[in-house]
Amino acid sequence: MHISTKNERGKLSGFFLVPVVAMVLGISACASAPQLPTAEIERAESAINRAEEARVADYASTDLRAAREKLVKARNLMQEAATEKDRDAAVRARMMAEQSISDAELATAKAQEQRAKNVNKEMQGTIDMLQQEIQRDQ
After folding, report:
1. Does residue 58 contact residue 2 with C-beta atoms inside 8 Å?
2. Distance linking the first and last C-alpha atoms of the chain
3. Most-buried pick from 18, 43, 104, 111 (CB within 10 A)?
4. DSSP three-state, residue 33
């Protein structure tokens, strides 16, 4: 018959304590509320607002519409994540918000490109007209 000493009992209880603590921490992490993508949604709203102020819809309405739709989906997913403590919905909400930002920025870039092309076309027309007048005067 083996009688355990205090030192052996201390080692044994420490051996069981670590997994129990890890399990309790893991369970509490699962039960906590997911990280909501409020900052990303605010950035998406700002990107869409900037695009609207720049009258992007005149040149890239499809991309701007996609940005708005993805923002609505992101808001809905964030609400789902908050009410149901659904981490997956929070991750999808963050992805939708980031895609919304990208779509709004793409719409802005397309609009800027189209405006630059229009200015270039006008300038080329002016140059052509001036060249014709110069040739007439010679």
Report:
1. no
2. 123
3. 104
4. coil
